[in-house]
Amino acid sequence: MSGYRAVGVVGLGRMGLTLAAGFSKAVGPEGVFAAGRSPASVTRLRAAVPGATVLPLPDLPGRADVIVLCVGNADLPSVLDDLRPGLGLRHVVVAINNGLPLRALAEAVDGPVAKLIPSAGNEAGAGATLLVPGARLTEQGTRDLLALLRAFSTPFVIEEAQGRAATDLASCGPALLAAAARAMVDAQQERGAPLPRELAEQLVAQSLQAAGRLLAEGAGLDDVVQRVAVPGGNTAAALTAARDGLTTAWHAAFRATAANERSRPAPAFR
């Protein structure tokens, strides 16, 4: 069980709501405190986490041990200005911005800091979360954060330098895999396959679920391929034909994520 008993979530967009709901599984709804910008976001929180407490931003440090900042880089300085008077050495400040250097966050607050990269699967209590421990976060503090994250994800501790590559696979991964599956359906449709699109999507979804189940039961990626791709068979022929194109497509995708991240200016904390 985690040593942290209360979590504050700043920002109630899609990911903020996902994390608020996830943390409620670890500390209970009564242990979730949140600050949102609009009445609509607060309404969504009350629907997602009945029992969570909505507070003005400056009041959040008085109720929560862990403060999770689910806002963009441009908004971080003003958010920290509002929080800083109440922040002390006991507060763990966690950002979900992969492009934010942890040293910059550590210089802006007195207590421990960390970076958390969630994924869409967390909405369903699945998928990875990536935790990057930062300055002043002890080994026990890291273990306590991991205990919170295990309530709704499979957490991994990574180094900050690994963040972009790991985020591509864990956080971008569900959307990228879904888009790849959609491309499979598109290709069959364009070939004039006699399948209604709805049926084609259902079949691909079942393939994704089957692969996920095999992997969850201990099979490796190569194991899954080898179980299906009999030498000389249709699947083996398909893999040979698609291999170079798939690798080229993923290279392009990961170059794009890196370039997009570099294009965003880091926040300037006061």
Condensed summary:
The chain is an alpha/beta fold and 270 residues long. Helix content is 49%, strand content 12%.
What does this molecule look like?
There is one protein chain. The protein is 49% helix and 12% strand. The protein is built from ten helices and eight strands. The protein has helices at 14-27, 39-48, 76-83, 102-108, 139-149, 163-170, 173-190, 197-216, 221-228, 234-262; strands at residues 7-10, 32-35, 53-54, 66-69, 92-95, 113-117, 128-133, 154-157. The chain has an eight-stranded mixed β-sheet, sandwiched between helices. α7 crosses α8. The mean pLDDT is 96.
Keywords:
eight-stranded mixed β-sheet; 10 helices; 270 residues; 8 strands
Task: Quote the distance from N terminus to C terminus.
Answer: 36 Å
Tally the helices: 10
Report the major sheet. Answer: 8 strands, mixed
What portion of residues is helical?
Answer: 40-55%
Structural class designation = alpha/beta
